[in-house]
Amino acid sequence: MGIVAGLDSSPDFTRIVVCDADTGAVLKQGYAAHPVEGGGRASDVDPQAWLLSLGEAAGGGLLEGVQAIGVSSQQNAVVPLDAQGNTVRPAMVGGDKRAQVAAADLVDALGGREAWAQAVGCVPQAAQPVTKLRWLNKTEPDAALRTAVLLQAHDWLVWQLLGRPVRRTTDRGGASGTGYWSAATGAYRADLVELALGHQAMLPEVIGPSDAAGTTPEGLLISAGTGETMAAAFGLGIGLGDAVVSLGASGSVMAVHPEALVDNSGMITSLADATGMHLPVVTTLNAVRTLRGAAEMLGLGDLESLSELAMKSTPGAHGLVLLPYLEGERTPNLPHTAGTLSGLRRESMKPEHLARAAFEGMLCGLADALDVLRGRGVEVRRVFLLGAAAELSAVQAAAPALFGAQVVVPQPADYAAIGAARQAAWALGVQQGTLDPRTPPMWQGPAAQVLEPGEELAVGQAVRQQYVSVREQTYPGAFR
After folding, report:
1. Cα separation, 279 vs 307, whole angstroms
2. Cβ pair 292, 305 in contact under 8 A
3. Looking at 92-106, 166-180, 286-300, 340-354, which range is the least confident one?
4. Residue 39 has pLDDT above 70, yes or no
5. Residues 372, 269, 120: CA angle, nearest 5 degrees
6. Mean pLDDT value across residues 126-138
7. Is the sign of the CA dihedral 340, 342, 346, 352 positive or negative?
8. Which residues pair with 253 in a beta bridge?
9. What are phi and psi of 181, to 5 degrees?
10. Could you count the other beta carbons within 10 Å of the beta carbon of residue 274?
11. For 443, which DSSP code?
12. Quick check: 412 pLDDT over 70?
């Protein structure tokens, strides 16, 4: 079929991969950091910065011969435009703690968490576009009033690449993270835009996973684009039976499922994926920050040292259990709580046991999140483990038995950019008549380590039970 490109515009940089459209083999790559203006708030970004870094990353003829491009971009960024298509103010990006009060306002305005879960499959958080619109309405009413069109980052980039046509598009994946589109019904909730922004605004047309957004004046096909989470899942090639556990400062667990999950507790965020399926996500506030805290407490300079120390202990950490709720917790919903260290005895008060308890506490917290999905009928046979901490020996030793599943640790790569390129290959194949609109191209899976629970499964389940007992004792019914 030829060659395609995927570009991932993350919060800090643009990365471009050029791939063989048939196999997915990466042929060339480009990279450029977004230009940073001094003094600007991290929550506000001029979207032109994304275009500048895109141009730099594509320099040196990187895109020569490319027939189609897919765009992945940071989720939760919202670009408010006026009636002429100009930005009303800088794009609102990131977690944006300014919007925390606005999130609580919105939850109350619709009648509580359950009402939101039923409406759009998620409860407003500070990061979401719908919450940022509420913040804009309350703090910058003039800018809110001039806002006529709402785009997300990947929508805006696709629109720019196509020469700013009248038609503006998005995909199911990106739309499902806005807080005003329902993955269950496949429709916008314009009333929620009005509730947040104070008036209606034009929203991009949601097109199918293999549809093209359009063609550039030079004849380059641009696919639908999607959010980074959905693009990374597509780049990894995950399907039914697969879950992805991401180890950042906070953690997330997502899995492919054939239907949208409505969760009245608000623990599950019901997203759509980039293939026409669904991507329920459960997040924990405390993942690698738990390990960093333990390393500092023990006077260790890095996580590798903490991992080596933990490996000197044994499963169960001599009875030490750490509930890692250092920043409060979302799963279970305990926003105002703190961490708990339980099981202190004279023989367990050793650095290696505390190190082991930190790893087991983090992984058991993520296993709790996995169980939220399993409890709703989501099948989990295989767990992809992402993030730098996935390489640590203490994580790899404990994760398969604690998760009760095969664990796959893919080699580091920009899976979001690869997923965007795979989407471009799909749209190109459909246009050329060589691919089915319902079946994405079969690309080679990532090179990865595969870890089995094996004989350790029973030991892991005992450690998990020890953790659950302490959690239930400390926070009875937290998961009811």
Report:
1. 31
2. no
3. 92-106
4. no
5. 135
6. 96
7. negative
8. 245, 282
9. -140, 135
10. 32
11. P
12. yes
Rounded Cα gap, residues 276 and 260, in angstroms? 11
pLDDT at 23 over 80: yes
Q: What type of residue is 388?
A: A
Rounded Cα distance between 417 and 431, Å, is 21
Residues 197-234, buried b or exposed e (16+ Cβ, 10 A)? Answer: bbeebebbebbebbbbbbeeeeebbbbbbbbbbbbbbb
- State the Cα–Cα distance between residues 235 and 254, nearest whole angstrom: 14
Name 221's bridge partners: 68, 215
Location of structure tokens 């196999």: 23
What single-letter DSSP state applies at residue 334? B
Task: Give the pair of three-digit tokens for residue 25.
Answer: 């083999």
The DSSP bridge pattern shows strands 149-152 and 44-45 to be unpaired
Say which amino acid occupies 299: G
Burial (CB < 10 A; 0-12, 13-18, 19+), residue 46, is middle
Q: Which residues contact residue 121 at a Cβ distance below 8 angstroms, ignoring those fewer than 6 apart?
A: 176, 182, 183, 184, 260, 261, 262, 263, 268, 269, 270, 271
Adjacent-strand bridge partners of 328: 326
> Would you say residue 363 has pLDDT above 80?
yes
For the record, the structure tokens of 333 come out as: 């919903």
Among residues 180, 88, 103, the alpha carbon closest in space to that of 138 is found at 103
What is the model's pLDDT at position 331?
Answer: 95
Q: What is the pLDDT of residue 96?
A: 74
pLDDT of 38 = 58
What is the rounded CA–CA span in Å between residue 159 and residue 146? 20
Q: 97 pLDDT band (50/70/90 cuts)?
A: confident
Which pLDDT belongs to residue 25? 96
Amino acid identity for residue 49 in this structure? A
Distances (CA, A) of 399 to 8, 361, 388: 29, 11, 14
Q: Coil, strand, or helix at residue 169?
A: strand
Per-residue pLDDT, 36: 81
How much is the average pLDDT of 413-437?
A: 97
Distance of alpha carbon 411 from alpha carbon 416, whole angstroms: 14
Mean pLDDT of 213-242: 96
All residues at 6 or more sequence positions from 28 whose CB lies less than 8 Å from its CB, including other chains: 17, 18, 62
